[in-house]
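Thread: Newbie trying to understand structure tokens

Hi all, I'm a second-year student working on a class project, and my supervisor (Dr. K.) asked me to get a predicted structure for one chain before our next meeting. I've only ever worked with sequences, so writing a 3D structure as a token string is new to me. If someone could post the tokens and maybe explain what I'm looking at, I'd be very grateful. Here's the chain:
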Amino acid sequence: MGEKQNVTFPQDVTDEYAALGVDLQALFSAGHLGARMGVQIVEASAERVVGTMPVEGNTQPYGLLHGGASAVLAETLGSVGSMLHGGPSKIAVGVDLNCTHHRGARSGLVTGVATPVHRGRSTATYEIVISDEQERRVCTARLTCLLRDARPGDADQVLAAG
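---
Reply by user tm_fold:
Sure, no problem. This is what the structure looks like when written as tokens:
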């Protein structure tokens, strides 16, 4: 699923997935789309996921950060949090994403921080706040993921598809 990144995971999470033969770095990457857009996940736990994305290359015709680019960053971060919450026995599938765009960004990096609103047995909802380099809020998003039981080979299929 795209290039591997150096993401910080809690050691107990890393150990749990490694025991199952799952490469967390690959499984929780931003995928091919995220790689094309320059998304970098820099911190990841079920309590908080942080990632960055450059504005350059992700703009609309007016030169502002494209709203769809903010949506990609938000869904990536919320999905990672949901998967970490669900653990290796669950697969997180996004079922609802909404984004409110507060201001434009023309350059630099934007940073998204995903924090849980609800973490249940069958769904997880994360709020994602995307800010510019001056720490001004660019976008607020909310993602809800369905947590479904993983089937044998799901992780292999996800990794092979990336």
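A couple of things are worth pointing out once you decode it. The radius of gyration is 15 Å. The CA atoms of residues 75 and 104 lie 19 Å apart. Feel free to ask follow-ups in this thread.
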